Amino acid sequence: MDKFIDMRGRYVSPGVYLIHPITVTHGVNELLYDVEGREYLDFTSGIGVTNLGHSNRELVQAALDQLGKLWHISIHVANYPAYVTLASMLVERVKLSGPAMTAFFNSGAEATENAVKVSRRASGRPYVVSFIGGFHGRTTLALSLTGKYKPYKVGFEPLAPSIVKAPYPYCYRLRLEEDDCLNMVMSSLELLVDVDLDPSVVASIMVEPIQGEGGFVVPPKGFLRELESFARRRDILLIVDEIQTGYCRTGKFMAYEHYGISPDIVTLGKAMANGLPISGIVGVESVMKKMDSGSIGGTFGGNPVSAAVAVKVIEVIERDNLCMRAESLGKLLSDRLSDLEKKYDFIGDVRGLGVMKAVELVKDKHTREPDKGKAKRIVEEARRRGLLLLTAGYYGNVVRLHPPLTISEENLARGLDILAESVKSIA
Ligand SMILES: Cc1ncc(COP(=O)(O)O)c(C=O)c1O
Predict the structure, then answer these.
(1) Which residue, of 319, 338, 363, is where some domain finishes?
(2) Distance from the CA of 107 to the center of ligand 1, in angstroms?
(3) Which residue minimizes the CA distance to atom 7 of ligand 1?
(4) Cα 17 to middle of ligand 1, angstroms
(5) Contact between residue 102 and residue 90 where contact means Cβ atoms under 8 Å apart
(6) How far apart are CA 297 and CA 299, in angstroms?
(7) Number of Cα atoms under 13 Å in the Cβ half of residue 421
(8) Same domain, yes or no, for 279 and 342?
(9) Which ligand 1 atom lies nearest to the CA of residue 270?
(10) Residue 261: left if φ>0, alpha if ψ -120 to 50, beta else—which one?
(11) Secondary element (H or E) of residue 120
(12) 208 and 115 Cβ atoms separated by less than 8 Å
């Protein structure tokens, strides 16, 4: 083990989890290098963040240009071009139910918190509905919206009040065909909102268009549309969390575009500045304009360097047609993963959109009993062979792949070869 891993054990709380016991020093696009000079293919993208690869030269230049001019003033003290340029670009591209406005923060959890605050202040209602198995962050309000107890909530109660959970249409695990699955979920939501609560006290519904940490759970096609009309009929705001799914990861700039809906608020984070800290919300003007001056934001939110890089990220994505590229790379991924599914009884499901794909490990296809141990072993075997992967899922039994959108086809294929060998080695 390298000395930095020893230092981590000694000086860093184990609460900050570590999947891969390696110390990396630098990266080039889809490749990472550790202190011992080993090379890895990075199919984690730093948890779905470095969509344009590591040390992307254009982004480095955009950061350097801004660093040399101004790296902090706080948007509350004075205005600066990068912040408002980014705001205008997002308002043009993230289409909502009406004209939109933005606000920027530092992390996904902060975007979650602010989306909830905004929905409560604008509606004057307290309750928020989120989904079982969803993930929205680790700060107390975001954690309260997160729909998984272990490890996130253990010992951290009491959490925030006035948050309720509905089941997500995870049809594979619910063992239902798509239509029945959708009906079951919508009926549960109706009982929750109309009976257990009353629509007049519900400010918003927060939903991931594909559950990320939940294991890349893709809902049935009609789900988001039904959810949208459910919310509209009750005057409830629809918040779509695009923190993990946004920025072309699924083949569209925003994943909700696959489903033809118009949210009221969208939360953004992760890939916005390819890893420099920034997050944001885009919300309809009618809601965003109701905020009292000074009630949202923060010292660092939308800092000039992150904002300048975030502007460049959008320019590069559009110039290089990276949404389309995500879709075509996604097809390569699907084909290879489906081959594995056919071959092994312990691969229960293969799913995802674009370059956001996962395999669910089970004891066998019939019982569908989750097999967390197998997922962990595949990730370890892959690392030994030079491929970095992540797990996810309600039961930790999902292996997820989210390489950068800029990965070469050769390296995508090489990574998939390594995955196949790793799966074979544990069979
Ligand atoms: C969908 C979603 N929302 C919110 C968050 C929280 O983001 P952060 O870790 O930047 O606070 C995450 C992080 O994984 C996420 O996937």
Answers:
(1) 319
(2) 8
(3) 108
(4) 15
(5) yes
(6) 7
(7) 14
(8) no
(9) 10
(10) beta
(11) helix 108-123
(12) no
By alpha-carbon position, which residue is closest to atom 3 of ligand 1?
Answer: 136
DSSP letter assigned to residue 396:
S
Residue finishing a domain among 319, 342, 366: 319
Instruction: Find the 367 Cα to ligand 1 centroid distance in Å.
Output: 31
pLDDT tens-place string over residues 183-205 = 999 999 999 999 999 999 999 99
Residue bearing the CA closest to ligand 1, atom 10: 108
Statement to judge: residues 184 and 264 lie in one domain: yes
pLDDT > 90? residue 59 = yes
Q: What is the DSSP letter of 385?
A: T
The reply to whether 330 and 414 lie within a common domain is yes
Question: Residues 205, 241: one domain?
Answer: yes
Q: Identity (one letter) of the amino acid at 318? A: E
For the whole prediction, is pTM greater than 0.70? yes
Question: Ligand 1: residues within 6 Å at CB?
Answer: 47, 107-109, 112, 135-137, 208, 212-213, 241, 243-244, 269
Stretch 370-382: mean pLDDT? 98
Residue 304 pLDDT exceeds 90: yes
Q: What is the pLDDT of residue 198?
A: 98
pLDDT confidence of residue 1: 67
CATH code at 298?
3.40.640.10
| CATH code at position 15 | 3.90.1150.10
Q: In which residue are the tokens 């954690």 written?
A: 143
In this structure, the answer to whether residues 160 and 275 fall within a common structural domain is: yes
Report the atom number in ligand 1 closest to the C-alpha of 112: 4
Q: Which domain holds residue 411?
A: 3-55+321-426
In terms of domains, do 26 and 152 share one? no
For residue 137, the ligand 1 atom closest to its alpha carbon is 6
412, 336: one domain? yes
Same domain, 151 and 199: yes
- Cβ contacts of residue 51 below 8 Å, gap of 6+? 45, 247, 248, 249, 271, 274, 313, 317, 322, 404, 405, 406
Residue with tokens 């544990």: 426
d(CA 264, CA 286): 9
Q: How many angstroms separate the alpha carbon of residue 111 from the centre of ligand 1?
A: 9
Give the total number of structural domains in the chain: 2
Distance in angstroms (rounded) separating the CA atoms of residues 241 and 115: 9
Contact 292, 267 (CB under 8 A): no
DSSP alpha helix (H) spans, 249-321: 285-288, 304-319
- Which of the four pLDDT bands, split at 50, 70 and 90, describes residue 51? very high
Compute φ and ψ for 160, nearest 5 degrees: -70, 140
